[in-house]
Design goal:
Chloramphenicol Acetyltransferase, seven-stranded mixed beta sheet, three-stranded antiparallel beta sheet, 5 helices, globular
Length: about 220
């Protein structure tokens, strides 16, 4: 982790401008092409949630702005960020569980499978990144909402506007369009840190990672 020197930071004006706004976040929905990953994942029997979360987390870690967080008057940049995902448990009650990102898919998938199984047995909000007072236990996270039964075209999520700079992501029901498979995808980020350019790079990275991972399943 490093602390960014604000006075020499190219985004210092953007940071000061957007940090003072009542709602300083920007959200975008996109359809992400995951054709190779989706087709080959099914043949390999790999978990749809785990494969998608892995590709998205790997793609996010390639964009420095998505690893940056606001802490009071400081901006820090994590070396690596990890996914925090929603998991549906009994009685249709969801909980959240953090997963440990590993660049090796097999290692990540094994750990993630165990964590998700525990979360299904006992869904909890204990690992939610901040409490009711807005104090964060950790911020090296990507908060990912998984809604596999709904192909959405718009999305919004709750957050604490001035203090929350963790990217919020949403994954929907994969759409089959001819020979292509597209993932409804939502991104919500703090505009003091992240612009449309960075979101575009993120989506491009997801498509590239999905293709690479799909190739490994052939």
């Amino acid at each position: 982790m490093r602390v960014i020197e604000l006075n020499s930071w190219p985004r210092k004006e953007h940071f000061r401008l957007y940090s003072g706004m009542e709602f300083p976040h920007v959200g975008i929905c996109a359809q992400v092409d995951i054709t190779d990953l989706w087709a080959n994942r099914a043949r390999a029997g790999a978990s749809p949630t785990i494969t998608l979360v892995y590709a998205i987390t790997k793609a996010a870690n390639r964009v420095p702005e998505l690893r940056q967080r606001i802490r009071g008057e400081q901006v820090i940049e994590h070396d690596i960020v990890h996914p925090l995902i929603t998991v549906l448990g009994g009685d249709d009650v969801f909980g959240v569980t953090p997963l440990t990102y590993d660049p090796h898919f097999t290692t990540f998938a094994s750990q993630a499978s165990e964590s998700i199984a525990r979360a299904r047995e006992s869904p909890s909000m204990t690992d939610f990144p901040h409490n009711q007072e807005g104090k964060f236990a950790r911020d090296d996270l990507l908060s990912i909402t998984v809604i596999p039964r709904l192909a959405f075209t718009a999305f919004s999520l709750t957050r604490r506007p001035q203090v929350d700079s963790i990217p919020l992501l949403g994954l929907g029901k994969v759409l089959n369009e001819g020979d292509r498979h597209r993932l409804p995808f939502f991104v919500n980020v703090h505009h003091a840190l992240v612009d449309g350019l960075h979101i575009s790079q993120f989506v491009e990275n997801i498509e590239a990672e999905a293709q690479d991972l799909g190739d490994t399943f052939r």
